[in-house]
Amino acid sequence: MWDSLWVDVGLATMAGTDPYGRIEDGAIAVKNGRIAWVGPREELPGRPEKLAAVVQEGEGGWITPALVDCHTHIVHGGQRAGEFEQRLMGASYADIARAGGGILSTVAATRAASLEDLVESAVRRLRPLLAEGLTVVEIKSGYGLDLDSELKMLRAARAIEARVPVTVVTTFLGAHAVPPEWKGNADGYIDFLCDEVLPAAVEQSLVDQVDAFCETIAFSPSQVARVFEAAALFKLPVKLHAEQLTDLGGATMAAGAGALSADHLEYLDADGVAAMARAGTVAVLLPGAFYTLGETRRPPVERLRKAGVPIAVATDSNPGSSPVTSLLTTMNMACVLFGLTPSEALAGVTRNAARALGLQAERGTLEAGKVADFVHWSIDEPAELAYRIGFNPCTTVIRNGAPTLS
Ligand code: NIG
Ligand code: FE
Questions:
Q1: Ligand 1 centroid to 216 CA: how many Å?
Q2: Whose CA is nearest to atom 9 of ligand 1?
Q3: Position in ligand 1 atom list of the atom nearest CA 322
């Protein structure tokens, strides 16, 4: 006997060969927090009431895998609306960063914030994402940039799991910017991260994966390589902010290190695409940052497609380049700005986002045996999710087999 069974729904399983993995008149069953059965209703092995303790009517809507936001900086102090104003008056993101604003202004605010402030403000920003059917969020450090503040950020990220129904994947991003104390000595700062901060964070079980910002205004590929070597000592998976503003060959380097993902990628070249394809590195596109910074160079979507590189889409939620707290809006941006199809956008926030976090065996598609995290939407067809702007058709979020909101 199953715990519950949904009928009278379309299923976008995001598995198989069809772009959505569509099952028009489907059924999906849950047992012990896992998907027990999924398929066409007519293939159910009996009458619904005989099969499950609870039968849910989907009323003709659609069920998709729950959403995964695989790249965020949602834990941080302060906000940067002033910079938004400055950019609109002509300053560039890089100008502001070089003048000590940008990431470093959030570093000051994050250092000044208490752990509780960080948790509280991040939870407030997470709520709209949860209301859109998010059940997994990746959260980076990188606004502390000293031992205590990096640990504080990671602890705040972990603490979120106890406050709201979400699974948090934490990422150590100490190599986000050179902090003021290390100005002019980026190499010394990298040593400090590798020798002191990362080991302390790992020791306290605060790190699931390791990231770095590879950019002319941040760290060079050889500095990033040292961070990746330190991650390898702890057997932690790596990923990289690469080719956002310039092409430093970061994605090729990340792929060579077996990275789970390379993220941003507006300036990715053909060699980078080929290296990612060979390594199975996911391309995480962040249209919220492209949109907010008014960028014009788009990531090479057609090349990524042709090479078979899995494409994920994430909010990059952060106070500077992407003050975005909606994955549905981000899906729309990925379609309108980058030319993804609505099914690619949905795969980007489900199947491929799970893969960018190394969670593909457990999450990201509707398949028997996977964690029963899925969303019921009041929509006529799955393309509606990427099509509307500012409308949330989510009716029910199921996490570990049980509803989180109705
Ligand atoms: O992903 N690129 C680097 N980090 C963030 C921006 C962080 C910030 O501006 O505060 C990003 O866009
Ligand atoms: Fe980022």
A1: 13
A2: 320
A3: 12
Residues near ligand 1 with C-beta < 6 Å? 73, 102-103, 106, 213, 241, 244, 289, 316, 318-322
C-beta separation of 9 from 31 below 8 A: no
Predicted pLDDT at 405: 65
Tokens, residue 307: 């090479």
Residue 85 CA to residue 62 CA, distance in Å, equals 40
- Ligand 1 atom closest to the Cα of residue 103 is 10
Pairing of strands 22-31, 261-264: unpaired
Q: Is 244 annotated as a binding residue?
A: yes
**192: phi then psi, degrees, rounded to nearest 5:** -60, -45
CA angle 351, 355, 359 (to 5 degrees): 100
Residue ranges in the chain whose pLDDT is less than 70 = 405-406
User: 98 CA distance to ligand 2 centroid (A)?
Assistant: 18
Are 174 and 193 within 8 A, CB to CB?
yes
User: Tens of pLDDT along 190-237?
Assistant: 999 999 999 999 999 999 999 999 999 999 999 999 999 999 999 999
**Protein residue closest via CA to atom 1 of ligand 1:** 316
Alpha-carbon distance of 162 to 123, in angstroms, equals 11
Determine whether 372 is exposed, middle or buried from the number of CB atoms within 10 Å of its CB (0-12, 13-18, 19+). Answer: buried
Domain architecture of the chain: domains with CATH: 2-65+365-405 (2.30.40.10), 67-356 (3.20.20.140)
Q: At what angle do helices 115-131 and 147-163 cross, to 10 degrees?
A: 40
Radius of gyration of the chain (CA): 21
What is the complex's ipTM, to 2 decimals? 0.93
What is the model's pLDDT at position 98?
Answer: 87
Q: What is the Å distance from ligand 1's center to 317 Cα?
A: 9
> Which ligand 1 atom is nearest residue 263's CA?
1
**Nearest alpha carbon, ligand 1 atom 6:** 321
Q: What is the pLDDT of residue 132?
A: 98
